[in-house]
Amino acid sequence: MMSDPHTNDNLGLKIDVELASEDLRRTLFWYNRTKLILIGIFFLFVLFMGLAGVALMSASTARSQKPIAALLVTALPALLPAGLSGLVLLSLMFQIRRQARVIADASEPTRFSFSNDGMDAVTETTSVHTNWSKYKKAVETKTDFLLFPQDRFFYPIPKHFFRNELEIQVFRRLLSENISGTLKLLAD
User: Fold this and answer.
1) What angle do CA 32, 38, 42 make, to 5 degrees?
2) Close Cβ partners of 101 (under 8 Å, ≥ 6 residues apart)
3) What would the pLDDT profile of 77-131 be if each residue is shown by its tens digit?
4) CA distances from 129 to 34, 113, 119, 157 (A)
């Protein structure tokens, strides 16, 4: 390995990445954001409708002087869908956290080298080269770059591993010049 991991010469850009569970959790939440938002909206809608139903039943119960136990028995089915959707939402969030922890524990520090030829990833046990043509998509978020060699699989490259803004701009340029698939980059 080279003495300066951030050398930006004719060979390209080199960065050392050691993913932590926070990096993976952030990217997994970003990747699953649509599911989380839709489930959250469904949860709020069902909860609101369930509470509205309970309020209507409570108003009719107050007029007819039925016991509170009867109200609870009728309210439970109205609130059960909200409880189940909330459980699904919490389950997805905990699964993302657990998956991030497991992946971080199993990952090794990686030296990424980026050039016009593609990406090289080198760890103590593995070395792999991937041509840019193999990437279907590249996405830049506020905090990360995500490289997708497959539809549901991505390599997260957190921006905090770049030494400065110039290296981020060089990487952004490499992506824009070499990725032929979908490219979603932030403006310089």
Assistant:
1) 145
2) 21
3) 777 888 898 999 999 999 999 999 999 999 999 999 999 999 999 999 999 999 9
4) 32, 9, 6, 16
Comparing 47 with 56, which gets the higher pLDDT?
47
Structure tokens at 47: 């909860």
∠ Cα 125 131 134 (to 5°): 105
Segment 137-151 mean pLDDT: 95
Q: Measured in whole angstroms, how far is the alpha carbon of residue 148 from the centre of its chain?
A: 13
* Count of all residues that appear for the chain in the document: 188
- Interval 5-42: pLDDT, tens: 444 444 489 999 999 999 999 999 999 999 999 999 99
The alpha helices in the chain, defined as continuous H runs, are: 21-31, 33-64, 68-106, 165-178
Across the chain, mean pLDDT equals 86
Q: Which residues pair with 118 in a beta bridge?
A: 115
CB 102 within 8 A of CB 71: no
What radius of gyration do the chain's Cα atoms show?
25
